[in-house]
Design a protein that fits this description.
Radius of gyration: 23 Å
Largest sheet: 5 strands, mixed
Order of helices and strands: EEEHEEHHEHEEHEHEHHHHHEHEEHEEHH
Structural class: alpha+beta
Distance between the termini: 38 Å
Number of strands: 15
Strand order of the largest sheet: 7-8-3-9-10
Length: about 425
C-alpha cells in the first residue's frame, strides 16, 4: 500500500506498553518485582485493569472480575492503582513517540499508532527506527514497550501482539498475506465473541478461510460488514493514522462495594462523576451536548459464554442507559450532575444497582460562549475553572461541591478523578 501524497509505501508502527500499570508499580516498588501484581482488583467487585506477566501465568487478564482473579492467583498482590501517576508516565511515553513522528494516534494511556512513512529514512530504515524507539522509551521511563511494524494499522497491531513481551516484529509488505492467512479469526479487528462464534460455526476458522469466502454467504452471516472483514482477512486496511481526534465522549463510572438504591448515595456518586467529567472536559478544552446515565443492576441474570480455553462463565448484570441532549454544550459539573440525577429519577428503579456511570458526548471545542447576563449558567461559568485552579494549587480534594451524602463512596470512585 502506498502513501498517495508522497508515492511511498506506507509504514505503520503500533506501540503497546507491556503490562503498563503493573509494570509502573513494579518499577516504583522494587519489593514487587518478580511477584504477581494485579492492578484494579483491590475490591471484591473490582475489575482487573492490568496484570503483570507473573500474574498472567495463573490465567489472570485485564477486564477479569477481581473475584475470579483471586481464585486463580490468591497469592497475587492486589493494588487499587494510581491513575494520575499512570497518566503522567503515559505523557512521558508519548513525548518519546513525538521524537519519531508527529503522526500519532493514541488509543489509550499505554498504546498508540504511529505513521512512520516519512521518518524511516532519518533512522536508517523501519527496523532501526523501531529498535531506537524501544531504547528511548526504556531510557525515559525504565519501562518496556512492544512494537509491531507493518504496511497498515490492522497488521501492525497484530504484529505487536505477537511480539509481546518486550518484542519487535516487522511484517514487510510482501509478507503480509502469508502472515495473516493462518491466523484464527478471533484476532481480527471488530470480531467479538458473538460474530466469531457465528463465523466459526459456518466453517470460517482462519483469516484464510474468510479471504476465500463467498461474499453472498458471508453477508448472510456478517451483514454489511462482510466485505470489510474479507479485506482484513486479505491483510488490507485503508484506515489512516489520525493524529488529531476530537474524543467521542468523556465518562466516569464506579462499582459499589454493596448494591445501592438510596437517592442520597446515588446523588453523591453522580456528583463525583459529573465533576470529574467536567474537569476533564475543561482540561482538554471541550464541551459536550449529550449527558448519558449508565446503571448496572445488582441482580445477576445468566452468564457470558465461556471463552476459548474453557474459562468459567462470567456473570452478566443487565445495564440500563438513559440520555438527554442539552440546549447548549457544557463543561459545567453542576449542569451535568443535574441532568444525570434527573435521568436517574426517570428510571424509577426499585432494584438496587451495583454500578453507576456518567458520560458526556456530542463533543465540541470550547470556544467563546454567549451567555445571558442574569442566567444561572452565566453566574457559574467561572466556577469550574476556579475549582480547577484551587485543586491545582492545593491538591486533589482540596475543595468540592457540597452534596447530601458522604463524598467518599468507595475507594474505586476516586480512581479516575481529574484525568
Amino acid at each position: 500500500m502506498k502513501d498517495g501524497r508522497v508515492g511511498r509505501k506506507r509504514l505503520i508502527l503500533h506501540a503497546d506498553m507491556d503490562a503498563f500499570y503493573a509494570s509502573i508499580e513494579q518499577r516504583d516498588r522494587p519489593e514487587l518485582r518478580g511477584k504477581p501484581v494485579i492492578v484494579g482488583g483491590a475490591s471484591a467487585r473490582g475489575v482487573v485493569s492490568a496484570a503483570s506477566y507473573e500474574a498472567r501465568v495463573f490465567g489472570v487478564r485485564s477486564a477479569m472480575p477481581s473475584f475470579r482473579a483471586r481464585e486463580l492467583c490468591p497469592q497475587g498482590v492486589f493494588l487499587s492503582g494510581d491513575m494520575r501517576k499512570y497518566a503522567e508516565v503515559s505523557a512521558q511515553v508519548h513525548a518519546v513517540f513525538e521524537e519519531f513522528t508527529p503522526e500519532i494516534e493514541p488509543l489509550a494511556l499505554d498504546e498508540a499508532f504511529l505513521d512512520i512513512t516519512g521518518s524511516v529514512g532519518l533512522f536508517g530504515g523501519a527496523l532501526s527506527l523501531a529498535r531506537t524507539l524501544k531504547q528511548r522509551v526504556r531510557q525515559a521511563t525504565d519501562l518496556v514497550v512492544s512494537v509491531g511494524v507493518a504496511p497498515n494499522k490492522h497488521v501492525a497491531k497484530i504484529a505487536c501482539t505477537f511480539s509481546k513481551p518486550d518484542g519487535l516484529l516487522l511484517v514487510p509488505d510482501y509478507a503480509v498475506r502469508a502472515f495473516v492467512t493462518p491466523l484464527p479469526i478471533r484476532r481480527m479487528f471488530g470480531v467479538g465473541p458473538v460474530l466469531g462464534r457465528a463465523l466459526t460455526e459456518a466453517g470460517y476458522h482462519t483469516f484464510g478461510d474468510l479471504a476465500q469466502a463467498d461474499l453472498a454467504r458471508l453477508t448472510r452471516i456478517a451483514g454489511s460488514r462482510a466485505e470489510a472483514l474479507r479485506q482484513l482477512a486479505l491483510g488490507n486496511d485503508v484506515r489512516e493514522v489520525v493524529a488529531e481526534r476530537t474524543p467521542k465522549s468523556y465518562g466516569e463510572e464506579n462499582t459499589f462495594e454493596h448494591d445501592v438504591l438510596a437517592r442520597s448515595v446515588v446523588s453523591a456518586a453522580l456528583t463525583a462523576h459529573a465533576e470529574a467529567v467536567a474537569r476533564r472536559l475543561r482540561h482538554d478544552g471541550f464541551r459536550g451536548r449529550t449527558v448519558t446515565l449508565k446503571a448496572k443492576l445488582g441482580q445477576r441474570r445468566g452468564a457470558k459464554p465461556a471463552r476459548t480455553g474453557g474459562e468459567p462463565n462470567e456473570p452478566v448484570y443487565p445495564s440500563l442507559t438513559r440520555q438527554r441532549a442539552l440546549d447548549a454544550a457544557t463543561d459545567d459539573g453542576a449542569r451535568i450532575r443535574e441532568v444525570a440525577l434527573a435521568l436517574w429519577d426517570e428510571l424509577a428503579l426499585t432494584e438496587p444497582v451495583r454500578l453507576l456511570g456518567v458520560s458526556v458526548s456530542g463533543i465540541e471545542g470550547a470556544g467563546p460562549e454567549q451567555l445571558d447576563l442574569f442566567s444561572k449558567q452565566s453566574k457559574r461559568a467561572h466556577l469550574g475553572p476556579a475549582l480547577d485552579a484551587i485543586e491545582e494549587r492545593f491538591g486533589r480534594g482540596a475543595i468540592s461541591r457540597a452534596v447530601d451524602a458522604p463524598d467518599k463512596i468507595t475507594p474505586s470512585m476516586q480512581k479516575k478523578r481529574g484525568e
